[in-house]
Amino acid sequence: MSTYFIAFAIGVLFWGTLSDKIGRRLAMLSGIVIYLSGNLGLYFAQDFNIVLLARLIQAFGASSGSVITQTIMREAYIDTTRSKVFAKTGAAMSLAPALGPLIGGCAQTFFGYRSVFSTLILIAILILLYTGFYLPETRKTVVKSAKIGMLKILIRIMTDKTVLTYGLLVSGINGILFSYYAEAPFIFIEHFKMTSIQYGLIGIVIALSTPLQVQWL
User: Fold this and answer.
1) For 39-94, how does the pLDDT look when each residue is reduced to its tens digit (9 = 90+)?
2) Rounded CA gap, 151 and 215, in Å?
3) Relative to the CA of 75, which of 16, 112, 169, 189 has its CA 20 to 30 Å away?
């Protein structure tokens, strides 16, 4: 998981800059293709080192969805509509880690562990097709060249008190959340002797909280 997040963090910086240069649509399509490539690597991997490399590629591609999606929403919506879209998107995204263990547990139990990766491959292909056919370009003026160096941007970000405050808040929340996702399978499956499907059902409890979030938006 640490390998995944390192590549994801690097990718966020890369895709944000690239989408300013080549546009949101092309950058998003490129990221999805890389994500798909990572999933293919995981499916065919025969060595643990290949698995780690594929996870790096997968995370790097997946990070495009995080930064570019938020940028597109900022450009496509305004005022209170934008806030509602962001809130509903965040609530919907919380379903993924909640339902993921259940879907993955069922796939692994009935079809083997490689079926988890084949499911991700199928999802990536569907997202790629949908994006290719329906995602418009929201940035009207594409930046040809960056006027500010990446190093200066990083220094400005790291010295901004507001960014640091919100960054620490998000880091703390994600640290707790993903610590659970990393350790929970071992605790419930190995210690409490649950099956993969039984563990996945625990995610339903988390998923049920999503409608409670949405009704207050």
Assistant:
1) 999 999 999 999 999 999 999 999 999 899 989 998 888 878 888 888 778 777 77
2) 42
3) 169
pLDDT tens figures, 135-177? 998 887 655 555 666 778 778 888 888 989 988 998 888 788 7
User: Is the distance from CB of 184 to CB of 199 less than 8 angstroms?
Assistant: yes
- Domain spanning 2-214: which superfamily? MFS general substrate transporter like domains (1.20.1250.20)
- Report the alpha-carbon distance of residue 149 to residue 68 in Å, rounded: 20
Closest CA to 101 of 183, 8, 6: 183
What type of residue is 133? Answer: F
The Cα–Cα gap between 14 and 152 comes to: 15
Of the candidates 173, 199, 206, 171, the one whose C-alpha atom is nearest the C-alpha of residue 184 is 199
pTM: 0.81
CA distance from start to end of the chain: 32
